[in-house]
Write a structure and sequence with these properties.
Layout lengths: L5 E7 L4 E7 L5 E5 L2 E5 L4 E3 L1 H12 L3 E6 L8 E2 L1 H7 L4 E5 L2 H11 L15 E3 L4 E4 L2 E7 L8 E5 L2 E3 L21 H12 L7 E3 L14 E3 H7 L9 H13 L7 H8 L38
Parallel strand pairs: 3-6, 6-8, 8-9, 13-14
Antiparallel strand pairs: 1-2, 2-3, 4-5, 4-7, 10-11, 11-12, 12-13, 14-15
Helix pairs in contact: 4-6
Length: 304
C-alpha cells in the first residue's frame, strides 16, 4: 500500500466548514471528507459552488474517488455526498455505524415517513470503531469519537487525523454536546482517551474554523499542541470540570441556523427528500418548539 498521500483543503465561508481531499498522486486514488452542498435558507435553494470546487480539483488531477467520508450527520450544512457520488459513480458514501441511533432519534423529531430506514442502509458502508479500511492504495483507520453526536468518528490516515466536530483548533476548543443523544462525558473520553493517545506529532485536521478574534483561517494543528493549549480541554483537565464547563457553555449557545434542514438530509446520506407526487417539489420539515416544549403555551391576554 502506498505511503505517499497528499492533502487538499477547501473552506466554505458560509458554514465555516473544512472539506478535505486525501489522495495518492501516483495511483490517483482519493477520498473526500465532509463535502458541502450549499443551501440558502431564505430562498430554500441549493447550489453547487462548494462541491463544484472539489469536483474541479478531482477532475483536473484525474483522481478516482474511492470514498466520500462523513465524520457525522452534520447540523450546520447539507452534505454534498450524493452530488459527488453522481459525478464519481465508483465512490462509496460511508459513516460511523452509530448513525442508526441518530436516525432513530431524528425520524421521530421530523415525523419522517414510516418507511424511512433507520438501519443505516442509505449509506454504502457503516464503519465500526477500529476498522481498518482500504481505499485503493490509500488506507485509514476509523476511530469512534462520540460526544458531539453518538455517531461521530475520526479518520486516521498515516500521521493525519480528521476530527470533524470533536476537536477544533486549540483556541476554539471542542464541539458542542447539546444535540439529542450528545454527551459531554463521551466527548471527554473520546478526546482524552482516543485522540490524545495518538503520537504527539500526529497532524490534527479540524472540521470547522470560526476564526475567533478575527484571526486568519486555521485548520491544522498537532496532538501535542492540543494537549498543551486547547482552551477547553488541555491534558490534565478533570472530567467533572470539563463536563460542567461544556454543559454551561452549551446552554447559552444558539441553535445552528441550518440545524433542521441539514440533519434531515444528512441522516439520509445527503439525499434530498423525494419530490411531492402532487406538486413535483421537494419539501423539508421544520418542527416548531421541539427543544422548547413550553414555548407554545398561549400568552394570557392580561399580559399584553
Amino acid at each position: 500500500m502506498s505511503t505517499k498521500m497528499e492533502l487538499e483543503t477547501f473552506y466554505d465561508e458560509r458554514t465555516n466548514t473544512l472539506t478535505y481531499v486525501v489522495y495518492d498522486p501516483a495511483s490517483k486514488d482519493a477520498v473526500v471528507i465532509d463535502p458541502v452542498l450549499d443551501y440558502d435558507p431564505a430562498a430554500s435553494a441549493t447550489s453547487y459552488e462548494s462541491v463544484n470546487r472539489v469536483t474541479s480539483f478531482l477532475r483536473e488531477r484525474g483522481l478516482r474517488v474511492r470514498y466520500v467520508l462523513e465524520t457525522h450527520a452534520h447540523a450546520d450544512h447539507l452534505s454534498g455526498s450524493q452530488v459527488l457520488k453522481r459525478r464519481f459513480p465508483g465512490a462509496k458514501i460511508a459513516i460511523g455505524e452509530r448513525i442508526t441511533q441518530v436516525q432513530r432519534t431524528f425520524k421521530m423529531i421530523f415525523d419522517l415517513p414510516p418507511g424511512f430506514p433507520t438501519d443505516g442502509s442509505q449509506f454504502d458502508e457503516l464503519f465500526s470503531d477500529g476498522q481498518e479500511v482500504t481505499a485503493g492504495t490509500l488506507g485509514f483507520e476509523v476511530i469512534a469519537t462520540p460526544g458531539h453526536t453518538p455517531a461521530c468518528v475520526s479518520y486516521l490516515f498515516g500521521d493525519m487525523v480528521f476530527t470533524g466536530d470533536a476537536l477544533f483548533m486549540p483556541d476554539m476548543g471542542t464541539g458542542r454536546c447539546d444535540f439529542p443523544a450528545g454527551s459531554a462525558e463521551d466527548l471527554y473520553d473520546s478526546i482524552t482517551g482516543r485522540l490524545y493517545s495518538l503520537p504527539d506529532d500526529t497532524r490534527v485536521l479540524v472540521g470547522h474554523d470560526y476564526q475567533p478574534g478575527g484571526r486568519a483561517l486555521a485548520y491544522e494543528t498537532t496532538i501535542a499542541e492540543q494537549k498543551e493549549n486547547n482552551v477547553q480541554l488541555p491534558a490534565g483537565r478533570s472530567k467533572d470540570d470539563f463536563v460542567a464547563f461544556r454543559t454551561q457553555r452549551d446552554a447559552g449557545l444558539s441553535a445552528p441556523k441550518l440545524l433542521f434542514q441539514s440533519v434531515q438530509v444528512n441522516v439520509d446520506a445527503g439525499a434530498l427528500p423525494d419530490p411531492s407526487k402532487d406538486s413535483g417539489l421537494r419539501y423539508l420539515r421544520v418542527p416548531i418548539n421541539v427543544f422548547r416544549p413550553d414555548s407554545d403555551e398561549e400568552i394570557s391576554l392580561d399580559a399584553v
